[in-house]
Amino acid sequence: MSQHIQMTVNDQQVGPVEVPEGLKMIEFLHEYLNLTGTKFGCGAGVCHACTVIVEGKNGVSEVVRTCISGVERFVDKKVRTVEGHAKRNAAGEITELTPVQMAFLEHFSFQCGWCTSGFINETTALMERLAQAPVAAADVEQVIEEALKEHICRCTGYVKYYQGVKDLILNTKGLTY
Amino acid sequence: MNSFSSSRRTFIKRCVISGIAVYSAPLLWKMGNSQAGGLSEALTAQFKGNNKLKFRMDGIAKVTGEKIYGRDYRAMDMPGWPDQQGYAYILRLDDAGHVYQGFDLNMLPQQARPGQVITAKELARDGVSLPPFFGSDMLLPEGKTAHYLGHAVAILLFDNFAAFKQAKNLLQFNKKVIRYGEKTAFVSESRDPYTSWRIIREEGESGPSGEDKYSPLQDGIFFPNYKAHRPQWPEVMDQQGSVSERGMYYAGRINEDITGGNENWQVLEREYRTQIIDPMMMEPEAFNGWFDEKEGTFHTVITSQSPQDYQEQAVHMLKHGPLAGKVKNLVVHSPFIGGGFGAKDHSIFPYYGLVAAMYAGKPMRLANDRFEQFQAGLKRHPFTMKNRLAVDKKTLKIKALTADMTVDGGGRVNFTGSVTMVGATALQSIYYIPRNDIKATAYASRNPDSGSMRGYGTLQSMATMESMMNEMAGDLKVDAIDLRRANVMESGQRNTQGAIPNGALRYREMLDMAQQHPMWLERAAKKAAFEAANPGKKYGVGFGITTKDYGTGAASPSAAVRLSKSGKIEVDICFMEMGTGTQSSQAVVVKDKLGVIADKVTVAEVDAWQAMQQIQTHNPYFINQQQQDEMEKNPRWTPVIGMASAASMSSYYQTHATKAAAEIIFRHGIWPAAVAIWSEKYFNGTMAPNNLNDAGAARWVDGKLTTQGYPPLSIEVLAKRVHDMGLVTGAMVHAFNRWAWSEATYDILGQEVNLEVDGLALQYGDGANDRLKAAMNSKGYHLLDRTSVNYPETALNNAMVTYYAPCAAMVEIAVNEGNGEVEILNSHTWLEAGKVIVEELVEGQIQGGLAMGVGHALYEEIPSFEDGAGNGTWNLNRYKVPKADQVGVWRQQHTILPPLSDTDPSKGIGEVVMISIVPALVEAVYQAISVRFYDLPMTAQKIKGAIS
Fold first, then answer.
1. CB contacts, 8 Å: B841 with chain A
2. Per the CB 3.0–4.6 Å rule, which of B270, B551, B635, B830 could disulfide with B808?
3. Are B770 and B866 part of one and the same domain?
4. Residue B695 and residue B701: Cα distance in Å, rounded?
């Protein structure tokens, strides 16, 4: 059994592509699109390393774990993976990073980096939510915990990720009051 | 010589092993440095900041999802490979108590059938076997019983992903696939122990620093015989006898005294158990390989901490099997790894991938999913330790320590021997022990094999010593830190092996700081207040301090530093980037000598060192002094050529080599060039001596070199002059450390210099004379012969370990009486890291180490045997690694002790940072609920049970 699917990934139209039944989205990204920035960690939806962003119609993004989600869930959706955040020049070279990417870099948030794409997508979605619904500055730590608490990092113990996100939120106009 | 021009697609020949030329492409052509193919140069150059590391060199690639890990690569990514990627799947056994009788693939529909199936029959037919390090039965033959749960029986090769995916869905977890026969004994029950160690020491009349009456360093080491698969230690006890007889004499005395009921002694006897831990590195192991028959070249992509070892072993495997005689070249790509924690060091995994690709005839990928990684990946050894500690009730001094450790090595031997030894040496923690008898034996079992996972045995043993000190303090009714202060090892005192730890021991300083911390001073008052304010919660504070050895006693780092004519600095190192920041820190290391951060650092280099043409002949641990004396006459000889990468090794060992290479360029390139410029432009150089004779008086200020008030010179200006004058522009070194660095004498441009390296090759600038230019004929380097060498004596092998880095942790917790959950309210870590290279990277190690220690103490656990990881059903839904809200993410504090001076070495701290929190948590739980745990982890369920 197979099916044909299509979607938009990082602003590129994909498909229709014939894929086997039961194909997970992360397998589609890796084996069919050769986008390996989304990382396989557990395959059971626990570690959240495989998180990607699905753009919402109302401007509010959704984060989805691709290791437990079938590819059919993403049909006709707009998907953003870690490869789709930074700006590139005509030669395809990355020339400018997003504030979330810079925050994690400058805070030395990660070591091995396997969990980084998941943290970037989750934090990016959080930033977009806060832009629409700011929170009190005093609540930022709690907001970050709620957003990131399921993401597993095995190297740096979370502290520098959380500090990076906190500094970024507090220093980004319009996200807190 | 400007090596910046070399093509990234050029594989560099490393050496020839058994007739096969080995090449490596350490990080694939795309990611060999920070100037990655997909990143703009202007962006990547930002990592250097204003000559202060702004972010990790590998950082941009990691936040943008670039292909940098071995698992990322498919055939289509590999130039020259066919696009069609094949996929391999390994069938494994989940029963080690019945005869294996074959497997059944009939449930697979036609389109999901494997194109090929490799079993023990094919391997036997073709003479393919594992490297000896891993033992036998790579694939178990029919009719035999699995050595361990998870033993592989077949490798299935699929032509495409769809077939592989469908087949795996049907085969994994399917109990009908494997056929078992009659019940048998476990294979492990018929095997002798993997290893046995005994560390006996009795202090001599001259005290802690004087000559011992008996110790391994002074007297040597002896081993038991095995009878009925158990160690039988010598029975003869003779104070005047052989090494073993004398050892047994002193061991007997120690044990007699500790059991003798001395009323002045407080004796604590306890049994401790640690659990099987999975390293849970985020990237499961993966492999990709293809044999290019036309070219006779076998290409492989691995995820390994020890690519050097893989290269050698893979070559030997390729000598047999379907490609015997066909493989002329082996290319090994070893990209970044997504965490390793020791479990990707000497892993058996890539050899299964190698066999798959060997038979496939097409690109073949083998990649564990998490279930498979749990089932087949290396684990942390579980220890059972029966410890006895005797303390003088009046003086609070430790009088004696004994231990009997049993270690489970799993079904295949890996680094069990050395892990067991290091675990035994670590028991003493930070304390001076005047008399000790520490036994440790490792056994085979049907568990998955354990290896060199982070801690290397010390986490298991040292945490128990700390728990004993905490409990002993309670028994003696003294402050737990006061008891430690009474016993802390001072600089110059001997360890349990009789060796003197190198350098200053700053344990007392750390204890003083901890004892003055408000968390400690106010713990009684806070407990009362907290529990009054939080009914149903119990409060506790715990403390632990440990000191972890780093090094192997046969460390052999290599480094090359090159200065281009435009002032760019390029560094090659032998260490792998495991995430700890080795690449970035080594870029910073050269700044001390060359004024600026390096522009490029190539990690995991294995080829370039061939320029030094070194040879290795003996096992460095077993070579005797006579052999060493004979071999060292050959200037090409070194005790060990290469080394694996480990988290606690790069900052000390790799830094030594990198610094040595940078220093040579400074002394024999930059300094004479600077003197020439200063003399020429800013001094009446022809009329008087310039008095610029002391290179040690030179200072780098804001990236420019000055001395004695002379105008600062930039690296660009200096580099041009170095090249124009034909001075040293590149230095490649190899060093060897057996608890001291070897030293050798060389002639560099007419100067006799003594260096702490045993291999040296140089490059010179354009202005060099024809003789020097002609001499650069060893892969572009001028290979220098040492004129003398001084290696550390082989007897130092008996020291076992002498380099230590200490860490202390204090933790404040609340225990929920209702569900047994532990909440970390606050924590403080103290770390003595020597000279810190990059503070942010050290902080990351502290915080990450604490999280992993929290996992070991509270959450992570795999049962042994049939219910354990070897059954193939384990994943993160059952194996609980700590999350942010379980480590007190917002309330972690730390103190990094300032170095004694800027000449302090940078210490290896990658492992010690995770140990102290374990006994601190054990004690904090005790202080909270008055129940002391001896088995780890202290899960919420166990705590709840203990409370009720």
1. 108
2. B830
3. no
4. 15
For residue B348, give the nearest of B399, B290, B302 by alpha carbon.
Answer: B302
Are residues B684 and B580 located together in one domain of the fold? yes
How distant is the Cα of B67 from the closest Cα of chain A, in angstroms?
7
Of A111, A154, A161, Cβ closest to residue B580: A111
Closest residue in B to A146 (Cα) is B885
The verdict on a CB contact (< 8 Å) between B166 and A37 is no
d(CA B79, CA B605): 21
Q: Where among A51, A84, A117 does a domain terminate?
A: A84
**Using one digit for the tens of pLDDT, what is the confidence trace for B661-678?**
999 999 999 999 999 999
Number of domains within chain B: 3
What is the pTM assigned to this prediction?
0.95
- Residue B5 — pLDDT band, cuts 50, 70, 90? very low
pLDDT above 80 for A44: yes
Confidence check: pLDDT of B94 > 80:
yes
B30-44, B69-83, B582-596, B901-915 — which is least confidently predicted?
Answer: B30-44
Residues contacting residue A50 through CB under 8 Å, at least 6 positions apart? A26, A38, A39, A40, A41, A65, A66, A67, A118
Compute the average pLDDT of residues B335-358. 95
What is the pLDDT at residue B24? 64
Chains A, B: CB pairs < 8 Å: 212
Q: For residue B751, name the pLDDT band (cuts at 50, 70, 90).
A: very high
Measured between CA atoms, the residue of chain A closest to residue B853 is A157
Query: Distance between CA atoms of B910 and B293, rounded to whole angstroms?
Result: 43
Encoding tokens for residue B48? 């250097």
Kind plus residue range of the DSSP H or E element containing B513: helix B507-515
Residues of A in contact with B857 (CB under 8 A): none
ipTM of the complex: 0.98
Q: What is the pLDDT of residues B128-175, one digit of tens each?
A: 999 999 999 999 999 999 999 999 999 999 999 999 999 999 999 999
d(CA A58, CA A128): 12
Place of tokens 């990236």: B703
Domain assignment present for residue A177? The answer is no
Closest CB from B54, B341, B884 relative to A149: B884
Average of per-residue pLDDT across B435-449: 98
Residues written for chain A? 177
CA-based nearest residue in chain A for residue B279: A154
Cross-chain Cβ contact B885/A149 below 8 Å: yes
Three-state secondary-structure class, residue B63: helix
Task: Report yes or no on A59 lying in a domain.
Answer: yes
Tokens representing B745? Answer: 């004498």
Residue-range definition of the domain harbouring residue A21 = 2-84
Contact between A113 and B892 using a beta-carbon 8 Å cutoff: no
* Distance set, CA A97 to CA A84, B61, B840 (Å): 10, 11, 21
- Chain B CB contacts of A112 under 8 Å are 281-283, 336-340, 578-579
Are A72 and A137 in the same domain?
Answer: no
Please state the rounded mean pLDDT for residues B403-426. 96
